[in-house]
């Protein structure tokens, strides 16, 4: 203790001694290694040497390795197009099958999910099969409600088979629909009419979810939801808001209301889609 052996931290023998104590300590406690060496040796720049040995240890590297965060890609243009009718850009996916009771027999039904890539609203349809005819008729019903005759001018973009990770925009909505059905579906084999009603309720519930921060301040507006773009409010009748004397006509008021929702979408929701950070 009075006359410890003085060692140069740059010498190979010194590094071997530090490495031995590091392994004896179980590759974990840096302070224990420092203390054990201090009992017998006086290593010049002891702590930096212990840190260097720990940094170069292969076992410690494997234990402390963390997956590298991939670079955040840019969102497609369809996710960032404001001031357009909902479902102008939408994704489509199927989920199921679901068993329904038709008379005394049981049949399979599938759910067709359409999600607006901009407002994140969803529309659900029941399809009796996985055929092309059923898919086309489901699209016609969706277009009649939300898109008019636009379905005739569709531009299709497919993801590769077996790559659902490239369809996260609608895969996440499928999970929300399944969670909503699990919470409300009490019968294991409901009638088809009951299933249709439950899907409609699930659609309304998902479209009422907040897209932006929910403030508890009574002076702040309510959080923006997909129902604002479909119904005019998150629930109930739309709030038309004040308007000038020159804008008392209904269509101008509704346009001003839609512009207000889109301005909030650009100001509050759009910056949260791809947050950028600096390492």
Overall mean confidence score, pLDDT:
82
Quaternary: single chain
Largest sheet: 3 strands, antiparallel
At the first level of CATH, the class of the largest domain is: Alpha Beta
SSE order in H/E notation?
EHHEHHEEEHHHHH
| CATH domain topology of the largest domain | Nucleotidyltransferase, domain 5
User: For the CA atoms, what is the radius of gyration?
Assistant: 31 Å
Give the number of DSSP strands: 5
Proportion of residues in helical segments: 40-55%
- What is the 3D form? elongated
Write the layout of secondary structure elements.
Layout lengths: L4 E3 L4 H13 L5 H9 L2 E3 L2 H11 L1 H7 L25 E13 L2 E12 L5 E6 L4 H15 L21 H17 L7 H16 L18 H5 L19 H20 L10
Parallel strand pairs: 1-2
Antiparallel strand pairs: 3-4, 4-5
Helix pairs in contact: 1-2, 1-3, 6-7
Briefly, what is this?
The chain has 279 residues and is an alpha+beta fold. The chain is 41% helix and 13% strand.
Written description of the protein model:
The protein has 9 helices and 5 strands; from the N terminus they run βααβααβββααααα. A hairpin with a 2-residue loop joins β3 and β4 (105-116). It has 3 domains: 5-64; 77-207, Nucleotidyltransferase, domain 5 (2-Layer Sandwich); 211-279, no CATH class. The protein has helices at residues 12-24, 30-38, 46-56, 58-64, 132-146, 168-184, 192-207, 226-230, 250-269; strands at residues 5-7, 41-43, 90-102, 105-116, 122-127. With 279 residues, it is α+β, with helices and mostly antiparallel strands. The chain is elongated, with a radius of gyration of 31 Å. The protein starts with a strand and ends in a 10-residue tail after the last helix. The strands form 2 sheets. It has a 3-stranded antiparallel β-sheet, with helices on both faces. The protein has a two-stranded parallel ribbon with strand order 1-2.
């Amino acid at each position: 203790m009075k006359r410890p052996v003085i060692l140069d931290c740059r010498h190979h023998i010194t590094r071997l001694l530090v490495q031995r104590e590091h392994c004896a300590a179980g590759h974990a406690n840096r302070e224990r290694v420092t203390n054990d060496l201090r009992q017998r040796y006086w290593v010049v720049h002891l702590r930096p040497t212990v840190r260097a040995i720990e940094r170069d240890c292969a076992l410690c590297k494997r234990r402390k390795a963390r997956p590298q965060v991939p670079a955040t890609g840019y969102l497609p243009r369809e996710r960032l197009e404001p001031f357009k009718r909902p479902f102008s850009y939408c994704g489509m996916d199927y989920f199921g099958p679901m068993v329904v009771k038709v008379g005394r027999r049981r049949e399979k039904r599938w759910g067709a999910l359409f999600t607006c890539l901009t407002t994140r609203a969803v529309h659900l349809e029941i399809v009796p099969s996985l055929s092309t005819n059923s898919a086309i008729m489901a699209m016609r019903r969706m277009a009649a409600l939300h898109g008019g005759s636009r379905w005739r001018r569709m531009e299709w973009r497919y993801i590769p088979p077996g790559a659902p990770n490239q369809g996260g925009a609608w895969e996440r909505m499928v999970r929300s629909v399944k969670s909503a059905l699990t919470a409300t579906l009490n019968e294991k084999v409901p009638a088809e009419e009951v299933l249709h009603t439950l899907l409609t309720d699930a659609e309304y519930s998902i479209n009422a979810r907040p897209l932006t921060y929910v403030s508890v301040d009574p002076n702040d507006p309510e959080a923006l939801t997909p129902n604002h773009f479909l119904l005019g409010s998150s629930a109930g009748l739309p709030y038309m808001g004040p308007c000038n004397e020159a804008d008392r006509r209904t269509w101008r008021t509704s346009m001003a209301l839609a512009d207000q929702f889109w301005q909030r979408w650009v100001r509050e929701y759009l910056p949260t889609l791809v947050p950028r950070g600096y390492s």
